[in-house]
Amino acid sequence: MVNSFVPLESNPDVLTRLAVSLGLSEDLSFHDVYSLDDPDLLSFIPRPAFALMLVFPVSDAYEEYRREQDKDKPPFETSSDDDVIWLKQTIGNACGTYAVLHSTLNGPAYGHVRPNSVLAQFKADLAPLTTKERIGYIENSKSLEAAHSAVASDGDTAAPDATEEVNLHYVAFVKSKSNVLYELDGRRAGPIVLAKLTPENDVLSPAAVLFVKRFMDREAQAASPSASYLSFSLVALAPSL
């Protein structure tokens, strides 16, 4: 069992290589998102966008908000009727890889997963498992560890050591097969339902980005009343160019 991974850089090329190595078709890839409301900047991202991955500095406000929101929730238990596959994060510094799994195993994006791939096997194996069984499955997956290790040293900056504490966290916003927008964060108590979308709405539609902006606003304001989004990074899973 692996206790910690080398953290992934928030780099679309790195994240795409990881997803493709696990079985995602090269028809999809991750793209930098430079604005959530500027039409000109959004026009560079192919549509539909299937998932958004936000990287943000972990603040005391996030930890307090997370604990407060989750304290009265019972432990999440899976069922055959689940609209999404959610994975509790227990591997240190692996939030980027958990976000990639959340983004590719759920919703329309899964239709772009190659048969007989690691992701396809994960989907089949994870679906019937309990939350605790899923933890053991992911912790003991040699294929996931190998895929992560193969790209962990890529990127534009030197990768920190696996045991180093990194103050950044990934969270995924995913549109499910039933057109529900979810916040999927392995450090929360379970999947978080945000909104019902129309079939035409993707995760970059105004109805969806409203919730992403609320998340970013909350964290930015907690850091400083005059804080901006400069400390955040956002990528979208969408058709390849």
Task: Report the principal-axis shape.
Answer: globular
Q: Number of DSSP helices?
A: 8
| Count of β-strands | 6
Strand content: 15-25%
Strand arrangement within the widest β-sheet reads: 1-6-2-3-4-5
Give the overall pLDDT as a whole number: 91
Helix content: 25-40%
SSE topology string: HEHEHHHHHEEEHE
| Sheet with the most strands, sense and barrel status | 6 strands, antiparallel
Could you tell me the radius of gyration in angstroms? Answer: 17 Å
Structural class: alpha+beta
Rounded to the nearest angstrom, the distance between the terminal CA atoms is: 38 Å
Poorly predicted regions: none
Which short descriptors sum up this protein?
single chain; alpha+beta; 6-stranded antiparallel beta sheet; 34% helix
Give an account of the 3D structure.
It is globular, with a radius of gyration of 17 Å. The mean pLDDT is 91. A hairpin with a 7-residue loop joins strand 4 and strand 5 (192-196). It has 241 residues and is of the alpha+beta class. Helix 1 (12-22) runs antiparallel to helix 7. Strands 1-6-2-3-4-5 form a 6-stranded antiparallel beta sheet, sandwiched between helices. The protein has 8 helices and 6 strands; from the N terminus they run αβαβαααααβββαβ.
